[in-house]
Design goal:
The protein has helices spanning 2-10, 25-46, 53-67, 80-98, 113-123, 137-164, 175-185, 217-221, 260-275; strands at residues 49-50, 192-194, 200-202, 205-207, 213-215, 280-282, 290-292, 296-298, 304-306. By secondary structure, it is mainly alpha-helical. The relative contact order is 0.16.
Length: 307
């Protein structure tokens, strides 16, 4: 919502409805029922081999968005590939500013005029859905820019770890525990920034009003105090109680990610498809390397065999 409001005020106000709201719980439930069919189709289309796993996951994520949350919000003459290319370009544009600590928390105020022009051009790919009051260009942009790389990254690492330790071979481990361990090791959101509204004392330290406070889901989730043997994939660790503030890949509190349920539902649907396969094999080691930009994304190109 923060990103939506900033975009509405600074990029192209005439395309952003002042009355737009996010989907209701009932509407989101309707979207979730479409996830399995979209993912099943994408997996079936892959055949026996995926040559570039992360690129494949990006395509799947875009297909999910276009057929659920953003159905009817993209101009008819624009292909999925064009939208994918434009989205990656805009994410790169924003990352140049977002990575400038500490001003990045208000990054969009710092964008040069040329960048605003590119964002306006990007917004013209979207349209108001004729029968849906929610499908604004603003929400389309916010949905893609906030979730495109993140969901694709989680899907990539889910497949990598499944090829090494399939859920079918782990008795007593539930889907949520398995997915939590994937996200713990590879949280695509590596920093979360906030500004206190007033001076805040925690033990002997005072955070002054307006200062930038940076927390890291990535570092906390690899802290051996809370997660013994933190660099290894161990879904069974979730059979024990985990401190609630040691694991916050979707943030916490009133600004918790509005898309968490949707993302988890998509990941669960993909996991269901993986469990139908007899064997999934990464044809090269995926390692544990990440590119750090706006989000932490896979650094390796991996080929995957499906049978």
């Amino acid at each position: 919502e923060f990103g939506y409001k900033k975009s509405r005020d600074l990029i192209q106000p005439e395309l952003f409805s002042s009355t737009a709201v996010w989907p209701t719980l009932q509407e989101t439930t309707g979207f979730l029922s479409s996830l399995q069919s979209v993912i099943s189709h994408h997996v079936a289309k892959a055949g026996a081999r995926i040559t570039d796993l992360y690129a494949w996951c990006l395509q799947l994520t875009m297909s999910i968005f276009l057929r659920t949350l953003l159905n009817g919000c993209v101009l008819s003459g624009i292909s999925q590939q064009e939208l994918e290319d434009a989205t990656i370009n805009v994410i790169g544009l924003l990352s140049d500013v977002i990575l400038q600590f500490p001003s990045n928390i208000d990054c969009i105020d710092e964008l040069p005029f040329e960048s605003h022009a590119e964002l306006r051009e990007y917004s013209r790919m979207f349209q108001q859905h004729p029968t849906c009051e929610y499908g604004t260009p603003g929400r389309s942009m916010t949905t893609l820019l906030a979730g495109y790389e993140q969901m694709a990254s989680i899907m990539y690492w889910l497949i990598v770890h499944y090829s090494e330790r399939p859920l079918n071979g782990l008795p007593g481990i539930e889907k949520r525990q398995y997915v939590n361990e994937v996200i713990r090791l590879h949280s695509p959101i590596w920093t979360i920034m906030r500004r206190p509204k007033h001076d805040l004392r925690i033990e002997d330290f005072v955070f002054q009003q307006g200062c930038v406070v940076i927390t890291s889901p990535w570092l906390m989730a690899r802290n051996p105090i809370y997660f013994p043997d933190p660099d290894h994939f161990r879904p069974e660790r979730w059979n024990s109680r985990i401190d609630s503030f040691a694991f916050f890949p979707f943030s916490h509190g009133p600004r918790v990610c509005k898309g968490e349920r949707f993302v988890r539902s998509a990941i669960d649907a993909l996991l269901d498809e993986l469990m139908k396969k007899q064997q999934i094999t990464c044809l090269a080691s995926a390692g544990d390397m990440h590119n750090i930009n706006v989000s932490a994304t896979p650094a390796q190109q991996v080929e995957v065999s499906l049978s």
